[in-house]
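user:
I keep going back and forth on a fold encoding question. Separate attempts, laid side by side, tell us more than any discussion would. Would you put together a sequence-and-structure record for a protein of your own picking? Write it directly below this note and I will take it from there.

assistant:
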Amino acid sequence: MLATQCRNRCRIKTASDAPTFEQLTEPTSFALSAVWGSSASDLFAVGASVAHYDGIAWSEMANDALSAGLADVWGNSSADVFAVGADGTILHYGG
């Protein structure tokens, strides 16, 4: 899997066993800052919001506490994901 730090807008691609990349649609209309995933069917993208890719489609994850943009995302597993951003924002997803 390929995870990239993004500026302005990102195109998210995953690597399969073949030496080619598959272009995925962008998760939402918000600008992305970072992408992390535990597998090709479990990606998290952050920016002005948080989105999750399940291998088929992107869905925006609700978060009432988010008031500032997110800069980065990282996890230990699909049930232990952290996103960090402006003003000391730290979010945790526990599955």
Observations:
- Strands lie at 13-15, 21-23, 32-39, 42-47, 50-53, 58-61, 70-77, 80-85, 90-93.
- The mean pLDDT is 78.
- The chain has one domain: 13-93.
- Residues 13-93 form one domain.
